Amino acid sequence: MPTAVAGPEIERLIQLLARLPGLGPRSARRAALHLIKKRELLMAPLASALQTAMEKIEICKTCGNIDTQNPCTVCTDARRDQSIIVVVADVADLWALERAHAVNARYHVLGGTLSPLDGVGPQDLAIDALISRAHEPQVKELILALNATVDGQTTAHYITELLHEANVKVTRLAHGVPVGGELDYLDEGTLSAAIKQRTLF
Ligand SMILES: [Zn+2]
């Protein structure tokens, strides 16, 4: 076992920071040291922001988004197109689409994708809630913004089947050449999807 270089309080801080995604033990030590050096400027406001967020964060009862109000800011925003629901696997995907200003609609967070290998079935995801939202009269289109992976596409097919009866258009994201992408660097799957889904110039 390596010798501790600091007291248990600091070691605990390092251990907790090391559990964050993208931070290993080495960067956790650097982050902890940085926080300690910037105690007043950074550590104190961070501690208080963590505390406040922990107390106030809720999961939106309508869409599954994370926010400090319920229903969330997105659901209560009247300027959004009420006829479109963008279906995402995770809140991270919702945030990514919002950062890109990709669509001015409402969302539905599934909480993952179907994955028989990992034991994730329909009952583990917010699929029932999505189906009932899809039947609301103002909803005309569901955009399935799911990963282009086997699990993502399995989930998309499953949802599409369930919506056979509903009076909504079900669309999915285009697959193809990324913006700024060079053809020579693309894998065969992406290239053949791009050719199959070519559009009129
Ligand atoms: Zn919401």
What does this structure look like?
The chain is an alpha/beta fold and 201 residues long. It contains 8 helices and 6 strands. The protein has helices at residues 8-17, 25-37, 39-56, 73-76, 91-99, 127-134, 150-162, 188-196; strands at 58-59, 66-67, 81-88, 105-109, 141-144, 169-172. The strands form 2 sheets. A 4-stranded parallel sheet has the order 4-3-5-6. Strand 5 (141-144), helix 7 (150-162) and strand 6 form a beta-alpha-beta unit. The longest helix has 18 residues, at 39-56. It is globular, with a radius of gyration of 22 Å. It binds zinc ion.
Question: Order of SSEs, N→C?
Answer: HHHEEHEHEHEHEH
Low-confidence stretches: none
**Residue-averaged pLDDT, rounded?**
93
Which ligands are bound? zinc ion
Percent range of helical residues: 40-55%
Strand content: 5-15%
Strand order of the largest sheet: 4-3-5-6
Q: Report the principal-axis shape.
A: globular
C-alpha Rg (nearest Å): 22 Å
Set out the fold topology.
Layout lengths: L7 H10 L7 H13 L1 H18 L1 E2 L6 E2 L5 H4 L4 E8 L2 H9 L5 E5 L17 H8 L6 E4 L5 H13 L6 E4 L15 H9 L5
Parallel strand pairs: 3-4, 3-5, 5-6
Antiparallel strand pairs: 1-2
Helix pairs in contact: 1-2
The structure holds zinc ion.
The site of zinc ion has 8 residues, from helix 4.
